[in-house]
User: Fold this.
Amino acid sequence: MVGVDHLSADTPSGLLGIQSRLHLTGRLDVEANNQQWSLYLYMGRLIWAAGGPHPVRRWYRYLSRHCPHINPQAVTFGEAGNIHRWDYDILVSLIKQQQVTIDQTSALIRSIVSEVLFDILQQEETRFVNFKIDQKDVLDASLALVNAQQVLDEVQPIWNDWRALGLVDHSPSLAPVLRQQELLQQQTSEKVYKTLVSLADGRRSLRDLAVLMKQDLVPLTRMLVPYFRKGFIGLVPIPDFPSPVQAMQVAPPSAAPGTTGSTGSLKPTVSPTAPLVACIDDSKRECDTMERIITQAGYRFVGIQDSVKAISVLLEQKPGVIFLDLVMPVASGYEICSQIRRISQFKDTPIVILTSNDGIIDRVRAKVVGSTGFLSKPVEADKVLGVVEKFLGVPQG
Assistant:
């Protein structure tokens, strides 16, 4: 049975609508402002939450946060799943593949349902909200069950703090962007100015930044509020990332093992004619991370963990871009970079240094031996792909 009712935006406390429905079993859809959120419930427990303006960004954020060994962009969605809750189906698949633990699963689910509940509370206080109940859409409750009232009690103070910042009508899914940049530079210290420039680039939402900087949402935003009020920083909507549902690639039955596009697959099919990217790093984990980022974007990849064999492998493979770890046994990144540059074939090949010690001395020394640029560790997928696309372009599928 499906029930539909309406709730006025001026409901006292803004809690009666959602709170009175958390005991349900089934799917509860909340619609407001041309957006929809869905809560999957089982006898007062939350199983999953979906919808909102940035479902893909949200999935990437919390998978990265709670399962850092997995590159979210390298996890594909196959045709066997439900397109309305593709993220849940991917999580189920990752559990079956033993890619994530039960504790990681519980933490990820809790983060996702907390964010969705925050959005619903914000809608209840500011807009007409429409509820729809589908008691037939019941998810498998075997992953994790989150006490609905308990998580709502945790989210409510966060919403109260957000409201106290004067941001009732501003979603955390908005992205900070610089305004009046010259005036801002004049009225702040160099350190503050550089920090704000790096944060307010209009590419990441406040939620993205909080997870990236390992800070809670409200304290991070509170730091920016004075600049909002002075007009130095604005908040703008940004698009979600492309949906894994739209981008799914299902390989033919004859594809090699590990290259299919089934739900949760970690190794997409890459064209044999795609540009080749090399990574020289003695850490298998770092090479695996780079491989997931590179191959998911459609490029070929070669990882080299033995620095002694690096030159011979490069000569054989002829990559278009080389990522090079700075600190390695036997030969350092400086030495290898210098050796590569002595080979005429690699005279103009981009060489990007990977390092966790991004100091001015390292930059100068790397430049002297012929490096093209620097990337800080741990690597971020968007920055890696930005470098690759700059030099190789986007691979044609």
In short: The chain has a mean pLDDT of 82. The chain has three domains: 2-164, 175-236, 276-392.
